[in-house]
Amino acid sequence: MRADLRRTTAAPLATAVPRTLTTAMPRTLATALAAVLLGTGGALATPAPAAADTPTPSPLGIGPAVTESHQRGIFGVSAWTDTPGVTITKVSATLRKGDTVVEIPSLPAYEWDKGRFGLGQAPLKLTEDGGTMPTLGRYAIDITATDSRGNTRTRTDAGVLDFTLRPQLEFAFSAPGWDDRTTVPSGTLTGVQPGSGDIVPITGRTIDVQRTTPPASPVQSPVTDGTGAFTGEAYTDVRPGDEFRVAYTEDSDEVHGSAGWTRTLYTWRPHTVTVKATTDRVRVLPGQQATVTGRMTDPKNGGAPLAGQQLRIGPTSGSYLHPTFAKVVTTDADGRFTTRIPSLPGLHIDGWAAAPVDPYQSFGTATVGGRLAMPQEARVLLRSRALSADAKVTATGKLRATYDPEASVSAQPLLLEVSADGRTGWRQIGSAKADDYYDTVVRAGSRGGWYRLRHPATDVLAEAVSNTFRLVRTETRITGANAGPEPVRKGAYVTMTGTLQHYTNRAWRTFGSGSVALQFQAKGSTTWRQVATGRPAANGRISLRAKATVDGTWRLRYYGDATHFTSPFSWADYLDVR
């Protein structure tokens, strides 16, 4: 048995008599020993009470009886014994309410919960439902347990059977509309009967109904009718999203408990209007604005204009209308409206939209809005630039968003442009796609001038231009080219002469520096072969020779240096070989 449920009374013993002796010897011997002690001057001791006065500790334990919260016709109780080899053989109950007594001869043991006894799947019911309970109410529970040795214990008032109706509420609103913005709360109060589970109306009760949306309205107190139904007073000027609270509490022999709901007004009758609107541009660059114009009409009234109606118009990201940047506009007498959407640097905007301010208005299935790009401000960082001897410009740069350096610029265009004076007349000569991680290289053929890298405005990034830079080289040419002798014998040498010049100080002048090559193309071939190289004389004169083996064409070429372009192809001379 659990120590907290044992009821024991300890017998007082003489302080001079050892406890182990008195508990082990017969009562008559203990009394005689006490007399001897008194006769020999021993300490005076109080005789132990007779055995009939000492209650025997009960070997049985009984726990509290608890009503099941969902099914009030059922209760359960724990019963046990701590005596080895002994089991609980029977548990019974007596229910009391005033003069009413209901006997339950046996509480079955729960197979799934050892030591637990209760009504299980056979709940108590009212007599009207074929049960044994005469009336609803709260009944005191007395539990009696018996073990396999015949020991019996009764625990009086082990619990209370809550054999009452469990209340439940249903609650709804009437649907308000654009032309009638009132709603009437209504519902039904019913009770679940213990045991049978039947749903019965709870009549003549007062229900608390309140609109809790700030500022909260006073509490209404409608009363349930013979069917348990109730109807409150109409609430005016309600809006979708308003919250209402309905509650009921009772603690009686018939009904015990609370029921309540907080519900949102989510059903209403919207009025569909027609809105047509456009913007004057689909891309808003930094410093610009998009103007939205439109008109609202009533399709249920022959398309008549709707005056004095409000709309919220602003930029969107996906389908999300930014409330911070949206503006509220009001239609004029002809149903028309206009507003402006400015550039918003740093925000990812991909469109614009309009939405009704009045929650009772709807655009139906139509979507009012469209595409509207707001490119972020950008910058182009120039990394390197060069102009090669063969007239190729190479510029390297990095494209980045100004306010969001981590924003992706992948596949954004980067153009290479040239101008004669670095201020006007810019024209594109090359392009490449930007990369998020690496510098972008742009190449193009050009013979010098002023250059820059430019990102043209796109839906992602605004226009951005790098610093301008100038690249120049000196032009060269070979004049007076001639090959001979003509014709030439096979195996003999062909000599080709000419003069190398460069353009300096606004005139062509002889140039005696660098390397010059003699090239040959055999008859019927498309390939040029370099057959000799040399340097021009100080006066620019060139003379190179090579053996002739087949018919073909001969020419001279200067390959330039750090400051000079490669010369254009000089005059080619065809020779017969005989």
How would you describe this protein?
The N and C termini lie far apart (135 Å). The radius of gyration is 54 Å and the shape is elongated. 28% of the residues are buried. Strand 34 (449-455) and strand 35 form a beta hairpin. The protein is mainly beta. It contains 2 helices and 44 strands. The strands form 12 sheets. Strands 22, 23, 24, 26 and 28 form a 5-stranded antiparallel sheet that branches.
Concise account of the structure shown:
This protein has 578 residues and is mostly beta strands. The protein is built from 2 helices and 44 strands. It starts with 18 loop residues before the first helix and ends with a strand.
Strand-helix topology:
Blueprint: H1 19-24, H2 27-39, E1 60-62, E2 66-67, E3 75-81, E4 88-97, E5 100-104, E6 116-118, E7 137-147, E8 152-163, E9 166-173, E10 182-183, E11 185-192, E12 199-201, E13 208-211, E14 229-231, E15 235-236, E16 243-251, E17 256-264, E18 271-272, E19 274-279, E20 289-298, E21 304-305, E22 310-317, E23 320-321, E24 327-330, E25 336-342, E26 351-356, E27 361-362, E28 369-371, E29 378-387, E30 392-401, E31 413-419, E32 427-433, E33 440-445, E34 449-455, E35 464-465, E36 469-471, E37 476-484, E38 493-504, E39 507-510, E40 516-522, E41 529-534, E42 541-547, E43 552-558, E44 573-575
